TrEMBL record:
Belongs to the pantothenate synthetase family. The gene is panC. Its EC number is 6.3.2.1. NCBIfam families: panC. It comes from Melittangium boletus DSM 14713. Homodimer. The keyword GTP-binding does not apply. PANTHER family: CYTIDYLATE KINASE/PANTOATE-BETA-ALANINE LIGASE, PANTOATE--BETA-ALANINE LIGASE. Its main location: cytoplasm. This is Pantothenate synthetase. Pathway: Cofactor biosynthesis; (R)-pantothenate biosynthesis; (R)-pantothenate from (R)-pantoate and beta-alanine: step 1/1. It comes from the Bacteria. The reaction proceeds by a bi uni uni bi ping pong mechanism. It is found in: Cytoplasm.
Length: 284
């Protein structure tokens, strides 16, 4: 049996109210659709942590800039619904843009320091759009737990900050990045890549691995670790957007990595016209 499709706020509110009256624990997995195994892993983990899992499929227009790929963002609702169902979601919220942003909509959520720098600096307004839509979804579903992938690591930290600061009372779970056997992080935007671009995109994971290998040989200064990653990008002519080593929680830049200190290397680069991001822990 296919997951229940909810199209409106009113339908969703009624479904959530019924669920709460039954005393069942709800997990929410927000997505923009064009699902892959990474999204399905979130739904399966939601089933482990709650009685019922709902997913949302909504290509959120407020997190796209004027020159970004909103109109061509890949969509496959029927395929997504089947993947949600097979992974264990009981309901899928798939609203129209005007349902989420009706005439007169004027409220936005802005998260401070953690949304600045990295993708926040390159995509003005992006994290305001993310924070606003996630706040709306959490308010609508009132889940006990919500799950997000670590591939969008800055996004995850933005969401953790807004939930903490606004006392939303939702457990936010970050799940490890799911990768292809050759190391490429799964992403809906991988659909844009040509065969040659996909081959070159492997430099993101190779670069992070090179930085980690250098750390394991005793290098602690982040400039050297960043250079190791950059060399892998340059070797295949990927256009770097950024490579940074940051504190894993605050996302502030680090000059060195101390053993035992939670740190993360984050990479963004263009393969052709497609902007790809990746990250992993660094140090140990």
């Amino acid at each position: 049996m296919s997951a229940l499709v909810l199209r409106t706020v009113a339908e969703t509110t009624a479904w959530v109210d019924s669920l709460r009256r039954s005393g069942r624990r709800l997990a929410l997995v927000p997505t923009m659709g064009y699902l892959h195994e990474g999204h399905q892993s979130l739904i399966r983990e939601g089933r482990r942590r709650a009685d019922v899992v709902a997913a949302s499929i909504f290509v959120n227009p407020t997190q796209f800039g004027p020159n970004e790929d909103l109109s061509r963002y890949p969509r496959d609702f029927e395929g997504d619904l089947a993947k949600c169902t097979s992974a264990g979601a009981e309901a899928v919220f798939a609203p129209a843009p005007e349902e989420m942003y009706p005439p007169g909509f004027q409220t936005h959520v802005e998260v401070g320091k953690v949304s600045q720098g990295l993708c926040g600096a390159r995509r003005p307004g992006h994290f305001q759009g993310v924070a606003t839509v996630v706040t709306k979804l959490l308010g609508l579903f009132k889940p006990q737990v919500a799950l997000f992938g670590e591939k969008d690591y800055q996004q995850l930290q933005v969401i953790r900050a807004l939930v903490r600061d606004l006392n939303l009372g939702v457990e936010i779970v970050g799940m490890p990045t799911v990768r292809e056997p050759d190391g490429l992080a799964l992403s809906s935007r991988n659909a844009y890549l040509s065969t040659e671009e996909r081959r070159r995109a492997l430099a993101l994971s190779r670069g992070m691995a090179a930085a980690q290998a250098l750390y394991e040989r005793g290098t602690r200064d982040t400039a050297s670790l960043v250079d190791a990653a950059r060399r892998e990008l340059a070797a295949v002519d990927l256009r770097e957007d950024y490579v940074e080593v940051v504190d894993a929680t605050s996302l502030t830049s680090l000059s060195s990595v101390t053993p035992g200190q939670p740190a993360r290397i984050l990479v963004a680069a263009f393969a052709g016209k497609t902007r790809l991001i990746d990250n992993q822990p660094i140090g140990g």
